[in-house]
Amino acid sequence: MIHRGIASFGLDNGRCPPWLFERMVKLGREMTHALVLEYGPDEFIKRIADPAWFQSLGTVLAFDWNASGLTTILTAALKEAIRGEEKDLGIFICGGKGKTSRKTPDEIRTWGERLSLSAPQAEKLVYNSKMSAKVDSALVQDGFQLYHHAFFFSRGGSWAVVQQGMNREKRSARRYHWYSENINDLVSEPHSGISSPVVLNKVLDLTARASLKTREISTELAQAGYATLMKDITLLRKYSSRLSQSAAIAMPHGEQFTLLNLETREFKYHPVMHEDFSKSKYLEKVLAVVADAKPENYESLVSLKGVGPKTVRALALVGEVIYGAKPSYEDPARYSFAHGGKDATPYPVDRKTYDETIAILGSAIRKTKLPFSEKDKAMQRLMNSRQ
Question: Residues near 308 by Cβ (< 8 Å), separated by ≥ 6?
């Protein structure tokens, strides 16, 4: 079962010692072989998309369970572990940390050629990779900057994304998981899980179901044309400094238009109060591109080159302040531990799911060709991860 929960970890500094990485690669190779042999490549991809399972696998491979480095080192170790055996296993790992993440599209295309995938098939995988990064950097505005992006896919077409962002101010990291089989819409609640040590009070989440009206109005604004769109942006600029009061605006043909009243308790704090809507030539340039493209839907709008956090935020605030379509400001991250806590904080342990994770990974450990002493240590790490 895929979780929409959280495994807690803080921002990790330093490097993984070479001796530890070598051991992780060795055990990772054995674990991957055992898991693929038992469950198949598609199921392996599905498990990678489960934040609790991913976290447990990293713990088995000897990395600190609550360190942000688990994400980057586990991905790198698995990528190295299957190097040269990808076709035999039927699983492929592209991307990684920092500069390596930017190589993801080229790596996907290279595998597409080696696997004789059609150009549209390969480009669809590239598109999904790029859109997952765009969504988590622009549509989930939680203050975490992405620095790691890994794209896993199987020969059968299943894919998963594991990407991570950092918040230096809070000294914490947040991991985002995606799984292809769970996604009906790339811009509407596409995550299989978001892992984070903190849940924030105010996050602009444009992927939430509650933000549907905002997405629709943003698309309509883009389709209306540049002149119409800029009239609304000008109104927002003109009155953004006065939004603590209701403002009645004289409109053409004698109509009156009233901006959203932000005096109520609900709007004691609002992102627009700290937004700089002074004239931005770059924003205007991007909005011109958006209006010229006349995107057919919100996903098409977001996928346009140059569209980023500020662009979608501007459209969202126009939709809210002028048209009354309030987006979700609830953090999509829900909990602080992968399986709950023994004291029922933040919620009771999900024993069934936890036992399933232990059983699957425990079985894989026993089926590896490692010496008994190494198997025993791996089992101990797995069992200790529940503490």
Answer: 137, 138, 286
Sequence-distant (≥ 6) Cβ neighbours of residue 313 within 8 angstroms: 141, 204, 271, 275
The pLDDT assigned to 349 comes to: 43
Residue 40 has, within 13 A of its CA and on its CB side, a CA count of 7
Nearby residues of 15 by Cβ (< 8 Å), 6 or more positions away:
none
Fill in the amino acid letter for 135. Answer: V
CA proximity to 298, closest of 218, 194, 379: 218
Residue 62 and residue 58: Cα distance in Å, rounded?
7
Percent composition of the chain: helix, strand, coil (DSSP 3-state, to 5) = 50, 15, 35
The C-alpha angle 289, 291, 294, rounded to 5 degrees, equals 110
On the 0-12 / 13-18 / 19+ scale of CB atoms within 10 A, 146 is: middle
pTM: 0.82
Lowest-confidence range among 111-115, 207-211, 269-273?
Answer: 269-273
**Spatial separation of the C-alpha atoms in residues 179 and 3, rounded to whole Å:** 11
Alpha carbons within 13 angstroms on the beta-carbon side of residue 14 total 7
* 131 within 8 A of 140, measured Cβ to Cβ: no
b/e 32-70 (16+ beta carbons within 10 angstroms → b): bbbbbeeebbbebbbbbbbbbbbbbbbbbbbbebbbbbb
Q: Which residues face 149 on adjacent strands?
A: 96, 163
- Extract the tokens encoding 252: 């053409």
Written as six digits, the tokens of 164 are 């991570």
Mean pLDDT of all residues in the chain? 81
> Which helix (H) or strand (E) segment is 172 a member of?
strand 172-179
Amino acid 363: pLDDT = 72
Tens digit of each residue's pLDDT (9 = 90 or more) over 255-311: 444 445 544 444 445 555 566 666 678 889 999 999 999 999 999 999 999 999 999
d(CA 278, CA 62): 51
For residue 299, give both structure tokens: 């996903």
Give the integer Cα–Cα distance in Å for 156 and 209.
30
